[in-house]
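Hi support team,

I'm opening this ticket because the web form for multi-chain structure prediction keeps timing out on my end. I have pasted the exact lines I submitted so you can reproduce it. The total is 1045 residues across three entries, so I didn't expect it to be a heavy job. Is there a limit I'm missing, or should I split the entries? Thanks in advance, R.K.
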Amino acid sequence: MGFLTYLINGLSLGSVYALIALGYTMVYGIAKMLNFAHGDVIMLGAYLVFMCMSNSGLSAVLSIIIAIVCCTAIGIIIEKIAYKPLRRATNLAVLITAIGVSYFLQNMALMIFGSNPVSFTSVVSWPGLSLAGGQLKITGNAIVTIITCLIIMFALMWFVKNTKPGQAMRAVSEDKDAATLMGINVNATISLTFAIGSGLAAIAGALLCSSYPSLNPYTGSMPGIKAFTAAVFGGIGSIPGALIGGLLLGVIEILAKAYISSQLADAIVFAVLIIVLLVKPTGILGKQIKEKV
Amino acid sequence: MKKLNGSTKNLISSIAIIVVLYLVMNGMQATGNLSSLMSGLLVPVCAYSLVAIGLNLCVGYLGELSLGHAGFMCVGAFTSAFFSKAFQNEIPDVPRFILALLIGTFFAALFGFLIAIPVLRLSGDYLAIVTLAFGEIIKNVINVLYVGKDVNGFHFSLKDMMSLNMDFDGVVIVNGAQGITGTPRQSTFTIAVVLLILALIITHNFVNSRTGRAVKAIRDNQIAAETVGLPITKYKLTAFTISAAIAGVGGVIYAHNINSLTATTNNFGYNMSIMILVYVVLGGIGNFSGSVVATVVLTMLPEMLRGLSTYRMLIYSIVLIGLMLFNWAPGILKFREEHGLTTKQLVGRFKKNKEVQ
Amino acid sequence: MKKKFLSVGLCATMVASLFAGCGADNGAATSPETVETSGELTWRIGGIGPITGGAAQYGQGVMNAIQIAVDEVNAEGGINGYKVSFNFQDDEADNQKAVNAYNTLKDWGMQILEGTVTSGACAAVSAETYNDRIFQLTPSASSTSVTEGNDNTFQICFSDPNQGTVSADYIADNGLGTKIGIIYDSSDPYSSGVYQNFAKEAANVGLEIVATEAFTSDNKTDFSTQLQKCKDAGADLLFLPFYYQEGSVVLKQAHDMSYAPVMFGVDGFDGLLGVKDFDVSLAEGVYLLTPFAADAEDDATKNFVTKYEEQFGGTPNQFAADAYDGVYILKEALESAGLTPEASNEEICDALIAAIQKVNYNGLTGEGMTWNDQGEVSKSPKAVIIQNGGYVSVE
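Hello R.K., no limit was hit. The queue was backed up. Here is the completed structure from your submission:
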């Protein structure tokens, strides 16, 4: 019974990671860029939902929709100002700029929302399932997060596969120059990717803070790094990989805490990650790209 | 006189600039013209510069992105500080510091070597994430590491102070998250600058040596390099180990300049690794002197902005984004070229002015 | 080629800007002062703490509270007839940055330091103040490494050993629990310091520790596993030596898994009830050690809390209250020593070391506070219990 409880806890934590990782992997797959500011957009999304619910008394669904719209707008603005001018520069330059944006968002939030943590009211009011006579509890948050995660994953996969912009994204991710020759507007496609990624961040923020209700301007950064790890774990660029990577990371983290040592949990999680990458150098579902001479 | 090639000239001029700066700083310090803030920053700036040089070797010449260099700095810092603290009363100051420096460098190099063996099998962002993972493991382990010393020798524990089972007179040297307190403060600006210049010379010679050229060949085209029979692994390992060792030296300098050494996300975690990467990219990938300059500027900048109080880091982030766009964005570079604002043209104008004078 | 020239040029401009920077920073003139001094002789009190970064809420509380106290003191004519100017610098809770902040304050002409806020940074700075002979009074750095070997450093808060020991004694004396579970932050000097002292004393007073679990600053979103392990080990009391931000999550998650042991926090838990939108019913029955209650009815507390809310918004926590007291403690010590700002830092430091040990101060955070030569304050940690959304003293 103990093991099952831990497993469920791990899956709920993992589903949050997975949700964040989807945003990372999406942007990486198309723009080939590690968007270090993603975690901070998540924080902004959570604050927006919080403001709408707590200060304006709006319903959870409406709040999330507002947050999605705002985050998408923020994502587009960030992309226009900070990333787009560097489109043809080295990837590292964009990475550093993303770090700058991350600092900027954190400090901006510190100015606007203050340094005191706030307690986030869950967007899910359903208490969840109680199995085996109350021995096993699955919180409503966890179930909603997992379902949302699955829906988003399938929606993204469908979008990338079956729609025109989605196909353009795939083309851009394969070969930017060839895509340009095929008449695809590469710039617009990448901007669209950022917009979608940022919109997803709003949902991730709301669900992250519903499960772990303390919110401050730095809330997004560590889950962001963890989710990035999860995305790499699953094979960065792969949409189902993000889900698998996120869930696995959550489960490993919880089981390491539960059965080995909570003091060394971080070290164990990262050690497992290293071992997996050594066995499968491009992550669990990553494509093995053979280099051509 | 033997004709020097361009990169050697560059090296000599950057060393000359460092020496001049060193003399100026010393002069100002001696005459009391240097503010406490500046004199307090001299040694840390050199320490960060060293780490940046180390990372630049890895990023610029090995062509691999490492997000774990703060981890090597951490290893260098903690092993050397541990040694200095543990033998504070047994060994006189000067030999102890030299030994500490060697120990710190050695262990950082050792960790670099051990980590490189598996890591260099990977490439690109997978390599980056694995180095990040190693950095985090090092930090996490140090945070739960307890080491004490009593008449029976050293005691180690990964749990807490009580489980060290020391004699009553035992001294705790590494106290978990509280780290090492009371490391002798032996890093001076002179030592730091000497080490910095040494690192510049070593890296310069390395990248221009036979091994260095091989490393560059591997960076540019691994398969081609393999085809001509270069032992890829050996060269990559060498470069990565040297890179880690230099970061370790930075750690030693850092540790011996501060009374209380703790491993947190900001000083030895991924935040620091990323910060160092910022120095490297802003200073120019593959340009060691550039790394030093970028380190100096970006360490000074937040200190200069102290007057802005809580707005400080906000402005800092905006400046950082601005600098990146100014130096890297193709559009802006083109604009600068058209309007005579490239650094080349600016330097040219500067030189002309001097000649006129 | 272009890139190389670019970087060489960048070198030149940056070196130039470095020189310019040095020139500009030579005097004290560039530092911000919160009180216009314009040549007038004043007491220069510095403060250091994190006002950006993850620990910003603690540093900002301290900064705001000192500002309130300084304004009050100045309105009443200052200390020994001289006004106080106050300058607070950010350290992002980092040891090296704290030393930088300290050096900035030294350039400004700081005579007395009230700081730093966090333990690790404070240990780094107290070595500096000891060498420079500048008197240091820290509102909230509770580790013993702050005061050990430094005769010039004094604490307003309880020390780690003090908190750990008192908690263990209190739990044993009142029979609050027999099987103790502990969750602590293994990456934080304060938390692991209190934990170790608690564990030591628990062994002495015969408390059984059934589970010891940790988390780190990088891994503090999910506590369900630690809670589950404590629950499985049969812990009927949880000792939680960390800050209220994580505390609010722990309480929520314990509630979600229907685990309701006695919760015992230390002084870091103060501030819990001030977290916006926090469901205070979750905190019902939580014990914590605090010398300060923001809803206390006495005039001094009311005055402070009202001013704080008016000027800065939010409820001040214990850090802020300690910092507020600090200014008045300094005032009392300076007055009893009869000093003026003309004295050198060393004179002020030596005089204050002697004077503060004679001070007997009644403040927001304790009655009859006195200091010993180790720099520790005499106020004993008092346990309170949260009932109906407020603190109730349990003595």
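A quick check on our side: Strands of chain B lie at 146-150, 153-157, 171-175, 180-181, 260-261. Let us know if the file doesn't open in your viewer.
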